[in-house]
Amino acid sequence: MANIAIGQTGGTPPALNTATEAYLAMNRRKRMYGGILLVLFVAIFASGWRISEERNAGDFLPGISQLLDFPSEVVSEAWTNRANIPGYFVEFFPSLIETINIAAVSTLVGALIAAFLSLLASRGIARWPRMIPVFRRIMDALRAIPEIVIALVLIYILGGGPVPAVIAIAFHTGGALGKLFSEVGENADLKPIEGLSSVGATWGQKMWLGVIPQVAPNWLSYTLLRFEINVRASAILGFVGEGGIGHDLKIAMQWGQGRYDKVVAIFILLFLTIVIIDRISDHYRAKIVKGT
Amino acid sequence: MTAATTDAPMTADSPLAQAMFRSFRKRRMVSYAVPAVILLYLTYAFFAFDVPGLAARARLDNAAILLSDFWSHKTHVTRDNRTGTLEVAIEGEGKGTYAPGTYPDWVRTDGEVTTIDLGQGNIVTYDAAGARMVIPDYGLIDIKPVDGKLVLDAPQPVPDWISVSDNRISVTAEAGRFNYSRSKVETFKYEAGWELFFFTLDSPFHGKGFFELVGMTVSGDRVDPARSNVGYMVSEVWNNKMWRHRDVMWAIFETILMAFLGTMGAAIVALPLGFLAASNFMPLAPLRFAFRRVFDFIRGVDGLIWTIILSRAFGPGPMTGALAILITDAGTFGKTFSEALENIDEKQVEGVRSTGANALQRARLGVIPQVTPILLSQVLYYLESNTRSATIIGAIVGGGIGLLLTQAITTQKDWEEVAYYMVLIVLMVMIMDSLSGWLRRKLIKGDGGGH
How many angstroms separate the CA atoms of B309 and B328, rounded? Predict the structure, then answer.
């Protein structure tokens, strides 16, 4: 310890020693900051759980013991009526398709919105470079509004059905993908654009022929990932609002006992759909990124 | 291919040119086919979603109500036709009712006669005989009950913004709305702004201007001798019964808390599991495989179903929401963490191993410094997106701002509250976005040595 003082003030010890001491001091300081941060984090985390438990209707420990009550009740009832389940698969298949359609359409529309906004908001390729901050803020705003807000308001105006959910998810997707798209766009090679400018191409032609072919693989990969996310979002929106298999799930749950076989059928359908879509999207994304 | 270009001359029918033309044709076809398929699908969806029928179902009057409620408020002036009592209330709510004698200056009472000035010459009068409304460009609308039926006397022809039946006559004018039914007569006056946002009518600070309020904070005259004016004002705003700022702020806090506890808890749970599922740390392939399938299962079951199961066990509240986020994201983090761990640089681990470190020390000193920036950036990104999800999860489990929002929307009445919550949610998400972005830059730059 005494060495530090000498090393810093006098400079008499050999240079190597000073460096070692300085390094050790820095290490200690780093470790201390890390320690303080860790203590702070643990304190916030622990008190956060306490607060959330106090404000919760049920407490943690009794809840843990009841955790399996509901699933086991559902499963045992469904097991006794298991003969009905294949029939329910058929019954709920159309609403599953609706959920997937909501996700697909909103992903497509959202990706189109994102493509336009991101081309207008990327440095180097924007149509009006001065307007870049404006388009960025538009994307931020689209991203910030949670889907549920738009969906519930639109359900009031448009009355039920899948369209409010599509619009809500598409808006959010437009903002979220727009940000990712413009990051890709800013890394695009500008030489093809220069070449196209030299032959007098319009901005639209430069984008379509010079930028889109470069960014397409990455954009496609992000869009597939978003589709995965949107399938889940559309199931949740159905549960809270209207449309698709989420809504059927809510109705089946509201019936409570006696309809648990329906609940299980919907669970299984939803689970399989999500797993399959995840797998397909993973597979294609790996393929796209590897550049085959 | 490249060899061919050097010696064969380029003619239109050389094999190379043929191949190129074919590839061009194929590309051109793809560039037409992809938009065509998308268009076809959207057309299918257009009809599958019954968009043409939407125009018939859409309630544009609802949209008008909603938009006007977003930025304005209405005050109801209601007279009970049986007892003759008058009530002036903001949004018709008990909490916004003016005490008799303290009516706003556009409502004048003189015995049985009440005069309501809607501005620009539009005047409504209630008296013992009935009620009448003067509209400058139209004329006098006079309504009288005769033998239990309502009789309208107005310039002919009666326009379509006046609807008439035996029991009810309603006038929807630009200046306001006026309804007469056998039991009561009411007038709605619309004014801009969110009324009573800071102080309710029973507060001593109601109706005072901004500078007057500032003056009161500076001057020593206490409204309530027991406490200072500033403290009193803050508590009046905080406990506002109309807008419930205290409950709303708690709800926002709960939402952020759900996102924070869920994300951080998931990261803490997933970190050790990530090691167990990474091929360079877990030599036993079957165990590794089992962990991966567990992660896949958790992610596949999806947040919605976890939320439902958990809210049955723990009841409504923020802890349920936090646990739902925790479980869902533990699956995601487990997968992404193990991928990050598999992509580390083995040389550093090797270096630490050469000093005789055991497995735990190797992980702490050789691996963690390398992966911290990646993991931290993922965790912060999820914290950001979970702030949004916590709003939706709150609507399902019954906690946080999501619950308030769905309640306000299902009553289909207090749209100004919906607008208030929407503004708060967007602000919350934007603040969390920039906070997480700032932290990400700060922590990752400061910690960049191992990366």
Answer: 12
The answer to which of B61-70, B123-132, B323-332, B347-356 has the lowest mean pLDDT is B61-70
Q: Which CATH number fits domain B245-450: 1.10.3720.10, 3.30.70.1060, 3.30.565.10, 3.40.50.10540?
A: 1.10.3720.10
Torsion over CA: A272, A278, A281, A286 (sign): negative
Tokens matching residue B126: 């209630």
Most confident of A35-44, B29-38, B294-303: A35-44
B66 touches chain A (CB under 8 A): yes
The closest alpha carbon to B404, from B319, B318, B326, B320, belongs to B318
**For the segment B344-358, what is each residue's pLDDT rounded down to a tens digit?**
888 888 888 899 888
d(CA B391, CA A150): 12
Closest CA to B363 of B272, B264, B269: B272
* pLDDT at residue B2 in the model: 46
Question: Is the Cβ of A66 closer than 8 Å to some Cβ of chain B?
Answer: yes
Which A positions 263-282 lie with beta carbon below 8 A of chain B? 267, 270-271, 274-275, 278
- Is the pLDDT reported for residue A99 higher than 80? yes
The tokens describing A117, both together, are 């906004």
- Is the model's pLDDT at B100 over the cut of 80? no
Q: List domains and CATH numbers for chain A.
A: 2-54 (no CATH), 73-290 (1.10.3720.10)
Tokens of B392: 């939706």
* The residue type at A233: A
CB contact under 8 A, A271 and B296: no
Is residue A173 within a helix (H) or strand (E), and if so which, with residue range?
Answer: helix A163-186
Q: A122 vs A114, A183, A207, A216, CA distance in Å?
A: 12, 7, 12, 15
| C-beta of residue A129 within 8 angstroms of C-beta of residue A194 | no
**Which residue blocks in B180-244 are alpha helix, DSSP H?**
210-218, 229-238
In this complex, is the C-beta atom of B8 within 8 Å of any C-beta atom belonging to chain A?
no
